[in-house]
């Protein structure tokens, strides 16, 4: 039997919103906002050199990248505490604090909207304690790579 997957489950996003990577018009803050709010943000990199693309990628919160690359599967948990929809994240104080009120967690998108302001503030302040540390299926597969290395591995 053929298994069917929706776009949102295939890309591990909440909304079937894909922000176009418009060269020259897409800024990292837009990409991050779309991605942090459950869509698929993309960097318009068609006009960029590899050095410029690396610079854009480096604008992701360093604490998030570090948390993912230094974690193992035992550091993760499935939770709906942050967004109201179950997702895998690195267990931190934010998840611990919110899960104390598990019975009161609102369904998506209400919980996501409720927690969005302080998650954005945590990202701006590099506050790993209150940052939503989504990590996908397994942090073990995460690697710090430069765009040039990724491109070379594809050819």
Automatic annotation (TrEMBL):
PANTHER family: NITRONATE MONOOXYGENASE-RELATED. InterPro entries: Aldolase_TIM (IPR013785). Keywords: Monooxygenase, Oxidoreductase. It comes from the Bacteria. This is Nitronate monooxygenase. Pfam families: NMO. GO terms for molecular function: monooxygenase activity. It comes from Macrococcus armenti.
């Amino acid at each position: 039997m053929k298994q069917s997957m929706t776009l949102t489950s295939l890309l591990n996003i909440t909304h079937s919103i894909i922000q176009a990577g418009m060269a020259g018009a897409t800024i990292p803050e837009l990409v991050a906002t779309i991605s942090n709010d459950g869509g698929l943000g993309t960097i318009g990199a068609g006009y960029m050199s590899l050095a410029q693309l690396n610079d854009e990628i480096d604008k992701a919160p360093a604490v998030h990248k570090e948390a993912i690359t230094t974690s193992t599967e035992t550091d993760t948990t499935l939770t709906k505490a942050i967004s109201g929809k179950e997702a895998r994240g690195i267990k931190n104080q934010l998840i611990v604090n919110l899960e104390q009120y598990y019975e009161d967690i609102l369904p998506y998108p209400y919980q996501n909207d409720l927690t969005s302001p302080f998650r954005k503030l945590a990202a701006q302040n590099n506050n790993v304690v209150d940052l939503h540390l989504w990590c996908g299926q397994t942090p073990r597969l995460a690697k710090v790579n430069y765009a040039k290395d990724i491109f070379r591995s594809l050819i």
